[in-house]
Amino acid sequence: MSTVDVVIPCYNYARYLSGCVHSVLSQPRVDVRVLIIDDASSDETPIVGRALAAADGRITFRRHEANHGHLATYNEGLIGWSTADYTVLLSADDLLAPGCLSRAVSIMDASPRIGMVYGRTIHFERESDLPEIDPGGFSFRQWSGADWLRLRCRAGYNVITSPEVVVRGEIQRAAGGYRPELPHAGDLEMWLRIAALADIAYVNRIPQAFYRVHPESMMRTVYRGSFLDLRQRKAAFDSFFQHDAASIANAHNLRNLANRSLAREALWDACRAYDRNEVAVCHVEELVDFAITTYPNAASLPEYAALRRRQWLGPVICNRTQIFAAPALLRKVQRAALKQRWKHQGV
User: Where are the beta strands (DSSP E) in 11-136?
Assistant: First the structure.
C-alpha cells in the first residue's frame, strides 16, 4: 500500500483542525501519516492538536514557540519531515474530498512519469454547503510537463487552488521547498518547478478537495487586489525562469509568452476601468506601466489599441455611452468559457 504524508500547517484555525484531520484519516486504500505544525497560534490549536495526536498514532503534532511564517512551515513538513511515496500540503481550514488520495495515488502508481495530480476544488464557507461525492469510477487527463508549462505561460494564471494537489515524494524533494522571496505566489512557482521535472495529471469531474473561503478573504477584493495578483504572478514566473531556465527547452520563448499574457491582462483591466468610469480606483497608469515593463512590445497588443481609443474618449463618455459594451461582453463570454474549461479540463 502506497504511503502518503500530509502536512497540515495551522495558525489560529483550531476550530477547523479536527475536521481537516478527519478528512485525511478517513481516506481509503492509502497508508497516511499526518504532521500538524502549529505556527505559534494564540487560540486552542495546541490543545486540539495534542489531543488529536494522542488519539491516533498516525498523527504527529509540533508547535512553534515563535511564528516562523507559512513558507518556512510548509518546508519544515514537506522537505524536513516527509519521507513517504507521496506528499500533500493541506491548510487546516480546508478538507480533502472522499477518495481523493486513492485516486491520485492510483494514477501515479500506474504511471511513473507523472509527478503531480490535481483536480476540481469546491469552494465553500460552511460544511453544510458541501456536496455529496460520488465515489464511482473516474478518468483523468495527462500532459507532458513541457505541454503543461506552455499552457500555463500562455494563460498567465494559476489553475490550482492547492489542497487538491498530490505530489510524488521524490519529485517534491527534487523540486525543493517554497522560496521565501515569494510569500504570495510560491504555489504557482512550485507547480511550474514540478512540471519541469515530471508529467502532470488531472482527475476529471470528481472534486479532489474543498477550499474554505472566508468572508474577509483577499480573493474578494477587486481592483487593487487584482493588480497585486498580477505582480505576484509575474514574480512567480520570473523566479521560475531565473532558477530553472537551463533545464527547459525554449525557456526564452515561454517566458516571453507568459509576459505577453500578463501584459494583455493588465491592459484589459485598464480598459474596463474606463468603461466603468473607475480610472482613479483602478490605478490605470500603474497597470500600463506594468504592461510595458513586463512586455516591451505592449504597444503592439490589441488591448493597448483598445485602451488608446478609450483614453481618447475619456472615462465619462465611455461609461455613459457604453460604446465598448460589445467587446467587453465578448471578453466576459470568453472568460466564462475559460472558467468552464478549467473546471472540466484542469487548464
Answer: 31-38, 59-63, 86-89, 95-96, 114-124
Q: What is the pLDDT of residue 103?
A: 97
* Amino acid residing at 177: G
**Alpha-carbon dihedral 287, 338, 161, 199, rounded to 10 degrees:** -110
Residue 33 cell numbers, joined: 501519516
C-alpha 210/C-alpha 208 separation (Å) is 7
Q: What is the pLDDT of residue 214?
A: 84
Q: Dump strand ranges (E) for 58-216.
A: 59-63, 86-89, 95-96, 114-124, 140-143, 166-168, 199-212
Task: Report residue 93: phi and psi, to 5°.
Answer: -100, 0
The CATH homologous superfamily to which domain 3-218 belongs is Spore Coat Polysaccharide Biosynthesis Protein SpsA; Chain A (3.90.550.10)
Residue 168 has pLDDT above 70, yes or no: yes
In whole angstroms, what is the distance from residue 7 CA to residue 5 CA? 7
Mean residue pLDDT of the chain comes to: 91
pTM: 0.91
- pLDDT by residue (tens digit) across 291-315? 999 999 999 999 999 999 999 988 8
pLDDT of 134 above 90: no
What is the per-residue DSSP string for 214-269? PTT-GGG--HHHHHHHHHHHHHHHHHHHHHHGGGSTTHHHHHHHHHHHHHHHHHHH
